[in-house]
Amino acid sequence: MKRVTEHLYFWVLLAIVAGGTLGYVSPSTGVALKPLGDGFIALVKMLISPIIFCTVVLGIAGAGDMKKVGRVGGKALLYFEVISTFALVIGLIVGNVLRPGAGFNADPATLDAKAVADYAKIAASQTTTDFLLHLIPRTFFDAFTGSGDLLQVLFIAVLFGYAMTHMGAVGGAVHQVIEGASKLFFAMMNTLMKVAPIGAGGAMAFTIGRYGVAALRPLAMLMGSFYLTCLLFVLVVLGTVAALTGFSIIRFILYIKDELLTVLGTSSSETALVPLMTKLERLGCSKSVVGLVIPSGYSFNLDGTNIYLTMAALFVAQALNIELTLRQQVTVLGVAMLTSKGASGVTGAGFITLAATLAVVPSIPVAGLALILGVDRFMSEARSLTNFIGNGVAAVVVSKWEGELDREKLTRELTGRGSDVEPVRA
């Protein structure tokens, strides 16, 4: 057994506490540390696109035929849609029961429309047609060097993997190159994870230093309701799914605690994508299934973002004393099912998606987003953590559906020895 100080989660947790304390004691110093968090996230995002590309291509190759790829993809998308809908509905139910915005009595005339103008502008410029066309990058390499949109990378990877599996000996040679590149990128990511405590500490110092603990008090009801809803979703909904699959959600959370702390500190689920995939394979999930489910889950299975969309929309309406009809709430739910697709786990993406969702309810001024702008960063942690856990559970479930889950390894890893193994990907 390793000593506690040899675990990455110990240093990440220590950095988060130290960063938060520094941001509270000396806000200006905390704000000045923002580049540490931004730099770490930038380093990770630098490798995400090539890693996703290699992983999906190798997942398709490992599947052996496109029928299996289509089958796994279909099962994954079906699972994503069902669970995501649960998340949206739960957000609506809790928002209506707890009514976190009731009594806020905000005056629409006093809202700072300029504060959310950029978010609203980005959201308004993306129509359904634009969204679909945006899936096609301008050039092959633009998917990697342009906006960094994971959906474009997924699109390119599927085409590449399909072509590679139909090229015989030439395809085999290309497969070896991609496999070698994949090992190289994963080794680079494992190296970067050693500085995760620095990035997490810097990000937390900035968050507390910039917004302060006092900024949370007026919106504590919203934050508390949101965190409670995410916790209930993970323990009840995902817990039930896990139990039906044959494992404990609590043990699973403990198994990926290192990665969860990294996500907590950076407010981005992408920062722990690679270690998650490694641990899922070590749990007994099929490599090809993990390679197909996890990357697509980062675009289509955003449970935390879905809960946030419906709860935040209701909060803004309640804070402005606007009563939404059942039809309007159902409309918000339906639109959120579309706008949430493709929203990454990076801070800010959820806010842009929320602006796009509110745009379909004219009675709610988009400027109302200014009410939650100050605490969006704090809610981003819960969004990212819920998204992250949801994607991990999805990979285990789909692996079982495919008959490619090693139950003995799953039980062995979750009951003790798994978390002590260094994350090295074969």
Characterise the protein shown here.
The chain has 426 residues and is mainly alpha-helical. It has one domain: Orthogonal Bundle (Proton glutamate symport protein), CATH 1.10.3860.10. Helices cover 73% and strands 0% of the residues. It is built from 21 helices and no strands. Helix 11 runs parallel beside helix 20 (376-401). The radius of gyration is 21 Å and the shape is globular. 49% of the residues are buried.
Got a strand count?
A: 0
So what's the oligomer here?
Answer: single chain
- By CATH's scheme, which homologous superfamily applies? Sodium:dicarboxylate symporter
Strand content is: under 5%
Order of helices and strands: HHHHHHHHHHHHHHHHHHHHH
Please state the CA-atom Rg, rounded to the nearest Å. 21 Å
- Give the fraction of residues assigned to helices: over 70%
Number of helices: 21
Stretches with pLDDT under 50, minimum 5 residues = 418-426
Identify the CATH class: Mainly Alpha
Distance between the termini: 23 Å
Mean pLDDT: 79
Shape: globular
Sheet having the most strands: none
